[in-house]
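Figure-free illustration: sequence to structure, shown twice.
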Amino acid sequence: MSISRWFRLYAEMLDDPKVQRLSPALFKTWVNLLCLASATSGKLPKSIDDIAYRLRLSIHDAGQQIDDLILAGLVDISPNGTREMHNWSARQFISDKSVERVRKHREKKRNTECNVTVTATVTAPEQNRTDSDTDSETEKGENFDEDFGSEIGREEQPSVQPIDPRLIARAEGLGLDVDELIATVARSRPRDPSALLQSLVRKNLRGRLPGLTDAAIGRALCGDAEAYGTLQQLMTMEATDA
């Protein structure tokens, strides 16, 4: 029998525009990704194939929907390229161990029934957060933005990293509107601009060449000359047909 996992889902999402503007299919994918990421502290599997299998989606649809969630600000890309659910550590904080709390409560109850003086202190159920958690929420007060736990005027500023010029050159060589893609990256202010640009390029290519696999795009963007040449030919044919 497997151990059931759980994570916090906040009622404030009902009024969160980032969530409520999602399509029904994308909302379902977001919730399923939260379930998937709960096993790895908010991080998603590196392989899009694994994600697609767990979500019962095609590889194309999984990649497309994750790209859409990245643009919506609900999935982040870490500096090492790992995809993770937005603000997971702040929202899914580690509280005290409920199992230990229940054990102490039952022990105290047994000892009381046997007229044994108990000196152990039992943590009340309502104190399931640490003092620092409570104090932190009190200090935030009205400056606390319920949109995934950020503080108004004090958003976490991602470290500025340059976009890999090789990726820009490859995107330009495929006939993509590089200026528009870079502008989209700049508006999103990701921690890893190169990773987001690559995600946008993948999305653009899948939209123009529906039969193209994610693996083929990955090889081309990562420097495989043969795969890149083939992709250039396909893009040239697509532009000619259009």
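We now fold a second protein in the same way, so the two outputs can be compared directly.
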Amino acid sequence: MKPTLGFIGLGFMGAPMAMRLLNAGYPLHVYNRTKEKAGSLLHQGAVWKNSPAECAEHADIIFSMVTNDSALRDITTSIQTTLTAGKIHIDCSTVSPKLTAAIEKEYRTSGRSFLHSPVLGSIPQATEGTLLLFVGGSDEAFTGVESVLKILGSKIWRFSAAEHASNTKLIMNSFIAGMIATLSQAFAFAKNSGVDRTVLLDILQSSSLHSPMYQAKGKSILEGNFSPRFFLENLLKDTNLFRDAAQAYSTPSPIADTVKQMLEEAVSRKLGKEDYSAVIKILP
């Protein structure tokens, strides 16, 4: 018999991840601050719960996918009485390693299990189950959920501690931040100097500099399509998390420092709810 799952947080990534679990035949209980976002899942048979605590009470394995540290801390506070021994909480959010280390310690002390499993990928990968997963935490907890995690991702990397998975995710998102800054700079220069930007994308695709991200975001920029797949303000949040973590490990972060300034300027221009590629709009 399959374990009952809970899923807390049904945003851009959480909703398709939850749908994959539901379509795989797992009983699923869901919670989101806005119930409307659960509509498709409820139509397919998921069960609505009125709080994170209620969701955890009725599930054996509880997933969460939320925006920031504050939201994750609110969840752990809410579910502390209903997440009993033997249940496993898997958080997939991009949050600080300081927080995930603290949660892992708190859970272990009280006989509960916590894994941090941030993911790399966007909505298509979440829908297809081809996300890349970085899973930090105990081997015992991981063994109990490995088959479920494989429904969400095409490859899993294991880490002995939650904070190591958190740091890995921040490093990956620092690549995203640096790449969109580089692409924006190149596109602005090309436009102002009379170089065809479609030619640039063709050259990139034909060279060792090729990246699917450059192609996808480059084409979206040329089409003027900044519909969000990943909010610009969330990339700023992740860049700040990376900088804070780097400072804690006495690591300079000059590229992240520069990208932070660009993203802050974009947010000040009310671009925070657009796709992160909208950072190009701050360049003349």
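Summary for the second example: The chain has a mean pLDDT of 97.
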